[in-house]
Design brief:
Chains A, B, C: It is found in: Membrane. Chains A, B, C: It holds the Pfam family Ammonium_transp. Chains A, B, C: Keywords: Ammonia transport, Glycoprotein, Membrane, Transmembrane, Transmembrane helix, Transport. Chains A, B, C: GO terms for molecular function: ammonium channel activity. Three copies of one chain form a homotrimer. The C terminus of chain A is likely disordered. Chain A is built from 14 helices and four strands. The longest helix of chain A is centred in the last third of the chain and has 30 residues. The first copy, chain A, has a single domain, classed as Ammonium transporter AmtB like domains (Ammonium transporter fold), CATH 1.10.3430.10. In chain A, strands 1-2 form a two-stranded parallel ribbon. The radius of gyration of chain A is 22 Å and the shape is globular. Chain A is mostly helical. Chains in contact: A-B, A-C, B-C. Chains A and B meet through helix 2, helix 7, helix 8, strand 3 and helix 11 of A and helix 1, strand 1, helix 2, helix 3 and helix 7 of B.
Chain lengths: ~425, ~425, ~425
Amino acid sequence: MALPFATNMRFKFSSLALSLQVILIILFAIFVSYDTPHHEDSHGNSTHQEDEFIKLYPLFQDVHVMIFIGFGFLMTFLKRYGFSSVGINLLIAALGLQWGTLMQGLWHLHDGQINIDIKKMINADFSTATVLISFGAVLGKTSAVQMLIMAIFEIAIFACNEHLVVTLGAFDVGASMIIHAFGAYFGLAAARVLYRPALKNGHENEGSVYHSDLFAMIGTVFLWMFWPSFNSAIAEPGIDQQRAIINTYFSLAACVLTAYAFSSLVEHKGKLDMVHIQNATLAGGVAVGTCADMNIHPYGAMTIGFIAGIISTLGFKFVTPFLASKLKIQDTCGVHNLHGLPGLLGGLAGIVAAMLGAKEGASAGIQAAALAATIGVALVGGAITGFILKLPFWGQPPDQNCYDDSLYWEVPLDEEEQPNHYQEDQSKMKVDA
Amino acid sequence: MALPFATNMRFKFSSLALSLQVILIILFAIFVSYDTPHHEDSHGNSTHQEDEFIKLYPLFQDVHVMIFIGFGFLMTFLKRYGFSSVGINLLIAALGLQWGTLMQGLWHLHDGQINIDIKKMINADFSTATVLISFGAVLGKTSAVQMLIMAIFEIAIFACNEHLVVTLGAFDVGASMIIHAFGAYFGLAAARVLYRPALKNGHENEGSVYHSDLFAMIGTVFLWMFWPSFNSAIAEPGIDQQRAIINTYFSLAACVLTAYAFSSLVEHKGKLDMVHIQNATLAGGVAVGTCADMNIHPYGAMTIGFIAGIISTLGFKFVTPFLASKLKIQDTCGVHNLHGLPGLLGGLAGIVAAMLGAKEGASAGIQAAALAATIGVALVGGAITGFILKLPFWGQPPDQNCYDDSLYWEVPLDEEEQPNHYQEDQSKMKVDA
Amino acid sequence: MALPFATNMRFKFSSLALSLQVILIILFAIFVSYDTPHHEDSHGNSTHQEDEFIKLYPLFQDVHVMIFIGFGFLMTFLKRYGFSSVGINLLIAALGLQWGTLMQGLWHLHDGQINIDIKKMINADFSTATVLISFGAVLGKTSAVQMLIMAIFEIAIFACNEHLVVTLGAFDVGASMIIHAFGAYFGLAAARVLYRPALKNGHENEGSVYHSDLFAMIGTVFLWMFWPSFNSAIAEPGIDQQRAIINTYFSLAACVLTAYAFSSLVEHKGKLDMVHIQNATLAGGVAVGTCADMNIHPYGAMTIGFIAGIISTLGFKFVTPFLASKLKIQDTCGVHNLHGLPGLLGGLAGIVAAMLGAKEGASAGIQAAALAATIGVALVGGAITGFILKLPFWGQPPDQNCYDDSLYWEVPLDEEEQPNHYQEDQSKMKVDA
């Protein structure tokens, strides 16, 4: 009878993680090679391939920081879920970058091999982003086992959808659609299936504390700073890549002003709300993604960021409560507001930019088809994955233990902090007295 | 009657932020373009301009981290002002980089346009640094509205002074004078005007707590590590840029040793003081700025760092209390010790280096003129801005609410942390008992 | 009588630090120059040397972040030793990079001069890593004076051993042997000499608290992300360097899965242990170091990471208690598990790779000799240094004050946090009542 909530992960988790890793090593042995340049002998004179690797490596590292520090710490805002946020983030992403290398590479085999170069590493990191976004929707309500399973399914589906969008001929250099909207709607669909009625009035651990909000700001600021690298890392070198950097830089700056303005506008007494600041300031990076490398002019990018900051903040204030109460979607981190709505806005901006001729070869119809396909695949894929995750033997936490690290982690001092220590001191003092 | 302390920012703040952002978008639409390379057709063969962009981009990102993580977290040392420190830092810098692009670019129009390239982005980030330094002087005693206004004025005045210094023919590659000394004396002049007699004996929230000092160290260490990028980002590529990196690297290392030594020397029982470690270890980066790209030899750079660490630590111990008690300048973060005195030292080092012929074309007289002009412009500009900020309708906090996030932010759990939670538990236990 | 525990560092520490810095400046004046390119006149057309500097600079900065943020914050896991962890880390590394420049450079003089280029800066940072690793073994049980002395001795010995290994003709691009194993066994030998019987049953300050574990994760994640730069920074540009990046990337990813799996497997109720996650996830970076640039194939790198994650976690569970109880080695941070065992594994992997012909010119016998020599030099050097550190006038802390910042630092609020504040409030409430 206790099966559904058997949360001791000792054998389930370790055997799953080890099996996955063994399978990955075998698949890598069969399919994955280094990308050997054509002219190995031309020493001294660096080849084009060598140049690209070392030129893009700093952008790769920026993206890497976004994935592991950015996403990881952004989710530490919960008062008692920081270990899981940053720890399971690392676990999922470490699995995901290996699995993503395979799933994306299988669409581009050369002589039956996936040849690893810097772009494949950037794309592998990108593929993990989708899972980390979806993780935000179900944060605190799932086990590590469930997250490993979600990573396997979501990255496989993501790679198919990405291939579909590329095949259609759509543009999405900063991945507003194929990563952000995809990850958000996949996660929301899974969250819908995993709905927990007992949490509909919230949970005492669902809030933040002062220092956990500061930890989350580490994530926010690293994401904010390095987003120009995210949106430009796989752009065509030269003017396209530069445009992607410039547009993202200014979109994010504009977005900050509107996120702050609307946070103050919608809150009691005009105070700023950390949830908005941590998330809505980033919406400009998401929303400018699809047309980041297009000729939309800096003021065009700023306009996109301006709108993104507004819709994201309003999303937190009005859409999230609606989703929770009416649609039974409990979105822990509000990924709908950071990735969902701004991802849609990015897709729409791409359609408009294509209409206005901002990108040679872009078609509004194809952009729209890519957006629609992405949302559809994400919702269906997320729902199916949700049903798999709902099977009652993956160690999901009971309602009362949600948002609580101590279920899956050794937490110092009986799950509590120094106050205990001082309470003990107090007790001693009382005894002494 | 309640007007001077009407701190509800709901409409004032949001309407100001939105208006500024709308105006910026309009000005960008008129004045700002991408920097299009001359030969767009030469695909495959990267142009000089393209090379510069991608070569300097990692240095830009280092500077970006200094502005947003470095300055932001350095100021989180206050026990109850972390949200404002990192949050308002982000707000000011996001506004400032847009406004700085315009203010600096207007001096260098091409066909009536500002063409954005990587150096303009680096300079835009630089221009925000001045405001963030000044922010440190008035931290905890001003509202977000006041800071937006200060950003507008300070960056405009900074851009004029920078243009003046360049026109004079002075050298200041790492901006000891035009950013650090300028930002510090501007902020101190404003702080003088905004003097609060009621705070002359301190304020209960003005100190740090254990974890807030660790958050501040995140800022310190990122500033420390990336300062070589700050001092070299706009240097002439090649040997000048390399010298700027090497000199800053060794100046900072030497500065750490003297900052620690003097912290122990001046403190009670020889203990180290976090305030010194967080700030004075960085003085070597400030002080070597003006002559960073000059041929001062590594040991010359180390000597500058050696002195900077000493004067900065002594500044905290002896000058800051003097400024507060005698000159009525309440310098919250001690920016005079991190940016003011080391900035002056940097200016003087530049004069000496010019005398010694360490830089072709440099003149000691012109360097001295640039230093004097910068201090003068900063003091006058800061004082005028201070009077504007003193107008009684910008929502500045009442004395008793200084250094307190809860005035402007939704702070979790009635402005307090988990202890409350445990107190409740205790209460429950008492009730149970 | 109080001499051995005279922990007031006022004059000892400050005079030592100042003397060292003055000596360093004098030695730099005599021995250290910029690396001037051969053709200074060829402006516009960047030389090979100039290209190398700016190409490797981002990798240098990644290594820099690992040294100062990575190592510094990794050690903040202790509840009351965060100031020392990140602060003394900065101090040691700032001294060490200057001293390392000299000690390594003296083996490669040109016309009696050490010409600073980017590789010398990277190597200087590397040399500090050995001391920071050893610092982890004695963390909480030593004074800043002792650490300055250890830095001087250890870096000198490290530079000799490195020269020996290079002279032998061994390969160790990512320094599994000459940095990680060396630093670990040096530190363990010193810790053995400094054994404190009174701490054999632990110390109340030796554990972590919730937020200190999160600060430590900042260190972990930055180390994890930038390890590919560490292992490739001084590799031959081109294919070797790319291989080093790719191998490290995948080794680390595989290592995460096995570290998590074994953490859950060996812990009570299958919970994850933060100590394992903070450290064992990095073992893959250490272990793949020696053969990072060799043709071991991605799956070979993953296999090394797979094993490293297992032995590191098992090391924490079984070897560390054994070392403490049987060998009287109290290894505060478990550096034996993060650097010692994985460093040995890396040395062994290098021997096997040489046998398999993965590196042209590599010999299994020479690799084995290099490994044996490194361990031997480290153990002897560490033991000698330990005896020097044991001299009773370096201000080492008494047993009861171990792991406690307040001995050497001004700590806010009588060494305690806000709880005090609330206790006061409670007291007031009681008084009011």
